[in-house]
Amino acid sequence: MDAKHSALRGLYVITDPHLGGGHLAAAHAALQGGARIVQLRDKEATTRQLVEYAQALRALTREYGALLIINDRLDVALAVEADGVHLGQDDMPVPLARRVAGEQLIIGVSAETVEEALRAESEGADYLGVGPMFATATKPDAGTPVGPERLREIKQHVRLPVFGIGGITLQNAAHVLQAGADGICVISAILTAPDPVQATQQFAALWA
Predict the structure, then answer these.
(1) Active site residue: 41, 98, 150, 155, which one?
(2) Which of 150, 57, 160 lies closest to 108 in space, CA to CA?
(3) pLDDT exceeds cutoff 60 at 119
(4) Which CATH code fits 3-207?
């Protein structure tokens, strides 16, 4: 596994404009607690706002030696020199994103099925976000939970790093890791915790 792919494991925290005190506060708490990857996700912000948030997060993640991924927006990822972009099934096709971004940018893809996972791998994706693992309220359009067994099935068919996402808590995270996940993506279980730094530390300890 090359250096780019070897960094794609561990705890991956996704920000939400309405949780954790906003993007910067949430990311800061997560990084203090040991998150290795932060994704900026905001479906409501203007492009100018997204760039401002991303620039602030770029500086913060560099301070902590962590990766910054931008959800959906390849243009914003390139503008702020983020480490990567995460694309859904309805976003820009991976080959086109790769042609625009070059080989160094990390491209992640959401997948619910083995077929979607294999297509993403064949098209040049760097990692997969598989889910929703469990029911989740932070992404209303997430669809029916596929569970850790689907992640296990996908992991058997691809060589890419695979992250479980959707409804993951401290109580069920071990099931996702036991299914073969290289990492887990967390939102509300950290951003709505009474102490987000402590919550992040508890998740990060799962890899200890």
Answers:
(1) 41
(2) 160
(3) yes
(4) 3.20.20.70
